[in-house]
Write a structure and sequence with these properties.
Layout lengths: L3 E5 L4 E7 L6 E8 L2 E7 L1 H19 L27 E13 L4 E8 L20 E8 H16 L25
Parallel strand pairs: 1-7, 4-5
Antiparallel strand pairs: 2-3, 3-4, 5-6, 6-7
Helix pairs in contact: 1-2
Amino acid sequence: MPTTVHEFAWPDRVVVGTIGVPGQRTFYLQVRTGKQIVSIAMEKQQSAQLAEKIDEILDQLITLDGNPFSVPASTPIELVDNDQLEPVEEQFRTGVMSLGWDPTTAQIVIEAYPIADLETEDEVFPEDDDVDASEVLRVRMPVGTARAFAKRTREIVGAGRPICVICGQPIDADGHTCAIPEV
């Protein structure tokens, strides 16, 4: 069966956002070019790891002699995107993701595969480059956009429920009862 590839080479917008209230949020990676929009569901941990790994790649590129790719050390203010998600029509739920760097275009490359197509569902970033899936989302984004994407994603992930200072568990909106940890 041929693979359906949702490819975005220079997207107008690429963000992680959520739908729902803290504790019951669904995370989405949403990409748009013109009128083409693709939204894929992700786990909170996948979103956090994606932001972390993007920043790691960008930080490594900065250390190259002369920073030949003009990688910004922080988010360019003109690329900050704090808008809500556009209407979401979920394409698939993400299983495995891969992350790479294309030096020919100076872009971060994200590939995401549906969870049902893969046997290694526990692995967010596979070592094996040969993933066979019926569908894939491939996003290429320039370094400034990637830096802004990572910053926004960290903020979205961190905007969840507050953590109880006593037990370390999330506090729900309807209250919290914690067991005081034994000393």
